[in-house]
Amino acid sequence: MRFFKIIAVIIVLLVGAYAASMYFFVEENKNFQIEKEVDYPLEKVFSQFNNLQHFTRWNNFFTSSKSIDIDYYTPYEGKGSAISYVDNKNNRGGEMFIRYENPNKTLKYQLFEDKNENPTLVDVKFKAVSPERTKITWYVHTPKLSVLRRVENFWTEDRFAENIEKSMGNLSNVLGNKVEKDNQMAAIKYDSLMVEKEEEKIILGINVSTSNKKDALYKNVVMNYNKVYNYVTMDLGKKDDEFGFPVMMTDADNYKDKEVSYFIGIPLSKKIGITDNNYSFRTISPTQDYIMYYKGTYAGRIRSIQQLIQKAKKDEMRFGDIRQTFIERPTEDQNVNMKLSLSVYK
């Protein structure tokens, strides 16, 4: 009995010493700020923060778990918008609100985690460093913690900073694809032959062989594009802003063949682990291309392909595959909107 009393006294003394040290030497809450810069215009960056549907697609706090379930409440952007989230697998949940908005300048968030009635307050300020670069500053005020939980304040700032670092990588991927798509749409000049340098791309897709009779090829393209799109969005959990326009790669002159082999896929920012052997990655190395934008029936693209090949032969250039980039998703019984790219070299 005496032994247990001694142990109890030691435990009480240790708890008391811990509580006293927390009370006198550790702050009950944390205040800190973090700054980052991204190479995108202010308006495009701000729109990713004030729309919570966009926000949860790249913020690591939400994207780090595949089991999280998020509900969105109107209005979906700006002051008054809100979400609630539950992640049963990781035993967490909470609510988030936008309490204040000064367009393209300031947002104020409240985050209630788990059953804590006191929110984390996050003010985010935006400043255009240049037309193509934006500085983002987070001012964070964490809720007061009880004496026994104050030890958490030792890693709160590091955890928040790590989350922002990962989130900025995700945001850059999202905005990179959005800017690329916007630029491509703005640069379209239909039926004009142009020269373009293509940067390296990583494409996830499938290899296919099919008949070239009548509409059989295009129906097959639509079917296999939908397979790839569903795999990327449903199985891999990617959002539309996280990947580029679908690309079909095939021999430049196989439109004359009775059977066509092609690779169709979706550009991703990097290779990731996949478990389905039907899909594979293909890398497009930097090339110089002859390109034409085309809009019309799928069969009508052949004339544009022929023009690209004739141009290459006239310039005494060798050529490789033809890439068909669908500016609008291929849909059965509808015209196509695409960029045709013929890689050429001496």
From TrEMBL:
Domain of life: Bacteria
Protein name: Polyketide cyclase
Listed InterPro entries: ASHA1/2-like_C, START-like_dom_sf
Domain Activator of Hsp90 ATPase homologue 1/2-like C-terminal stretches: 39-175
Family from the record: Belongs to the AHA1 family.
